[in-house]
Amino acid sequence: MDKEKELIIESLKELTEIVSEQTKVILNLATENNLLEKRIKSLENKMEFIKETKEKVAECIFSLIGKWIILIFGFSLAITLILYIKGDIPIIK
Fold it and tell me: Rounded to the nearest 5°, which phi and psi values hold at 62?
């Protein structure tokens, strides 16, 4: 009977150690999971910032292209008007 009690006590000690180790593993995994969730959130924020930045850059580029087109058209119109006034461009009838 004493041997059985000793075996039971020893088994309970081993089970307690196993449960303790498993608890540590679970806590470590939970901590890692929390850190990974924070990292994912951080990466999502960075991706959103990059997306917004790309949109702003594209908007600026198209704005500059539009301004250059208007500027070139204005210069060509001014040059045409100057040449017309000088008489280098005849009036087409």
Answer: -65, -35
Residue 79: φ, ψ to 5°: -65, -45
Cα gap 12→16, rounded to integer Å: 6
Residue ranges in the chain assigned as alpha helix (H)? 2-86
Structure tokens at 27: 């806590």
Residue 93 pLDDT greater than 80, yes or no:
no
pLDDT in tens, 10-38: 999 999 999 999 999 999 999 999 999 99
Nearest residue to 17 (alpha-carbon basis) of 42, 31, 34, 25 = 25
Rounded to two decimals, the pTM is 0.57
Structure-block tokens of residue 85: 């006034």
The one-letter amino acid code at 9 reads: I
